[in-house]
């Protein structure tokens, strides 16, 4: 699998469709796979929802509830609509293709899908890369909006009936990160600003944009976001055009999409992988997985309004068993400190540390020093570095897999590290309650147990304590 697609909540069920090649473990003619959940944690596989037809393969897109049957496809009842990109190869050369936007509908809670007879709803344009429609209702202008990736820009279209679409505006030139790769997988939504004080804005719009892997970019594919205003037609960036804000500083967090129809909450999920090695990383009869679902808000920080992410509360509730307490300890000088000798592979945990100015502390969070977070304290802030090594030499499949990179910084010398560890993945949230950094990486190696060690490389630190919860045989 690759991208999450068509995320929508409808009649008590979260739907998660995804880019899927059913006949191989490498990317190929794309279908939409399908799973549903009532609690965002336990998922049930359903049959393939969309398969390639005469229009082409089914690339990424989104889903919404047509509550009042504005399309006329549902006999006056509410129904589900999926907007997706048809990718059609025009000759023997796979690079000779065109992309258009198509519609599919379901009258039975997503169990069966029909491709709309008058597809495409938005024909191929002058842009070769013209894909990944994200459709949502814009209440202030009482219209539907489609955000679409076109070359290295996001284009906005509007519609009254979800079938006819008019171009509104383009955003992107001169803003944020650009590589040789087209922009992909946009999402756009309004979010409250947490703890907004008098005189501050209470909400802003967030535009999420993916950038694929190209040889000119060692990081591979990554997700950036913009904070600004959207008036139903145009997006205006609040930040300086040169600012690049990463949604997650890890190597494996791509094609982020939010669920539609979850009033009061903005939940997202991402593909935990990187196009740099996705097609040749170790596999075990399957390849590719999703991140845990995250809930988003915004927060005013010293560098402007930024995203704040929390793992969805349903996942906290699902991991309920066997709590361990991590006692406080002083780490008074250079050396190795054992924090927890046996870390279950399926667990979440929290550590709180204070660093003396100028100290450096490396935390190993999975087997040995396989995945390591280094905290480098300045006078008033802590810079984060992330290192991923191999276990038993299992990194040879790609030169880019082992990595060591800066992962942002947080204000103050007191740091909270929250981690969610699965057999082959690790999602870390640093300073979840204030100014947050997220780092997500996969290992492709089935880990059964690990440990947490803190190595003081320079200076001293205090571990204020923490806790780990491991799941009951999950
Ligand atoms: C992003 C992406 C999308 C495209 C899909 C094809 O990972 O390249 O732009 O729709 O994957 O599988």
Automatic annotation (TrEMBL):
Record-annotated Glycosyl hydrolase family 32 N-terminal domain positions: 1-309
SUPFAM superfamilies documented for this protein: Arabinanase/levansucrase/invertase (SSF75005)
One term of GO molecular function: hydrolase activity
Alphabetical list of Pfam families matching this protein: Glyco_hydro_32N
Official protein name in the record: Glycoside hydrolase family 32 protein
SMART domains per record: Glyco_32
UniProt keyword Cytoplasm present: no
Organism: Vreelandella zhaodongensis (Halomonas zhaodongensis)
Coiled coil residues, start to end: none
Entry keyword set: Glycosidase, Hydrolase
Database matches in Gene3D superfamilies: Glycosyl hydrolase domain, family 43
Similarity field: Belongs to the glycosyl hydrolase 32 family.
């Amino acid at each position: 699998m690759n991208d999450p697609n068509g995320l929508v909540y409808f009649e008590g069920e979260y739907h998660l469709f995804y880019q899927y090649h059913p006949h191989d473990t490498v990317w190929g003619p794309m279908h939409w796979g399908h799973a549903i959940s009532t609690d965002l944690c336990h998922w049930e596989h359903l049959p393939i929802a969309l398969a390639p037809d005469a229009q082409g393969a089914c690339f990424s897109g989104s889903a919404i509830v047509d509550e009042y049957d504005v399309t006329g496809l549902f006999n006056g009842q509410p129904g589900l609509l999926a907007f997706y990109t048809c990718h059609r190869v025009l000759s023997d050369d796979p690079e000779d293709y065109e992309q258009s936007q198509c519609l599919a509908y379901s009258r039975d809670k997503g169990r069966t899908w029909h491709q709309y007879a008058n597809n495409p709803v938005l024909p191929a344009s002058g842009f070769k890369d013209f894909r990944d429609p994200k459709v949502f209702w814009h209440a202030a202008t009482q219209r539907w909006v489609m955000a679409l990736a076109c070359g290295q820009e996001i284009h906005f279209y509007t519609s009254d009936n979800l079938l006819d679409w008019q171009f509104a505006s383009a955003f992107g030139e001169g803003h944020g990160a650009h590589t040789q790769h087209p922009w992909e997988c946009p999402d756009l939504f309004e979010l409250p600003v947490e703890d907004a004080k008098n005189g501050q804005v209470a909400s802003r719009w967030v535009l999420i944009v993916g950038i694929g892997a190209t040889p000119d970019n060692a990081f591979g594919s990554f997700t950036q976001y913009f904070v600004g205003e959207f008036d139903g037609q145009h997006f205006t960036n609040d930040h300086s055009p040169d600012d690049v804000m990463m949604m997650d500083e890890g190597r494996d967090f791509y094609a982020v999409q939010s669920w539609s129809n979850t009033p009061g909450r903005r939940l997202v999920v991402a593909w935990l992988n990187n196009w740099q090695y996705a097609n040749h990383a170790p596999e075990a009869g399957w390849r590719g997985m999703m991140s845990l679902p995250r809930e988003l808000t915004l927060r005013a920080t010293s560098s402007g309004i930024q995203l704040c992410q929390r793992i969805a509360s349903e996942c906290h509730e699902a991991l309920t068993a066997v709590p361990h307490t991590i006692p406080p300890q002083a780490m008074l000088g250079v050396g190795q400190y054992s924090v927890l000798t046996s870390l279950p592979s399926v667990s979440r945990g929290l550590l709180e540390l204070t660093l003396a100015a100028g100290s450096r502390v490396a935390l190993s969070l999975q087997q040995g020093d396989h995945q390591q977070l280094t905290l480098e304290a300045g006078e008033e802030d802590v810079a984060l570095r992330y290192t991923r090594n191999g276990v038993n030499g299992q990194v040879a499949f790609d030169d880019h897999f082992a990595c060591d990179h800066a992962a942002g910084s947080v204000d103050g010398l007191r740091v909270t590290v929250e981690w969610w560890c699965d057999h082959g993945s690790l999602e870390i949230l640093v300073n979840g309650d204030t100014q947050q950094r997220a780092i997500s990486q996969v290992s492709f190696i089935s880990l059964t147990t690990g440990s947490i060690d803190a190595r003081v490389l320079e200076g001293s630190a205090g571990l204020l304590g923490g806790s780990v919860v491991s799941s009951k045989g999950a």
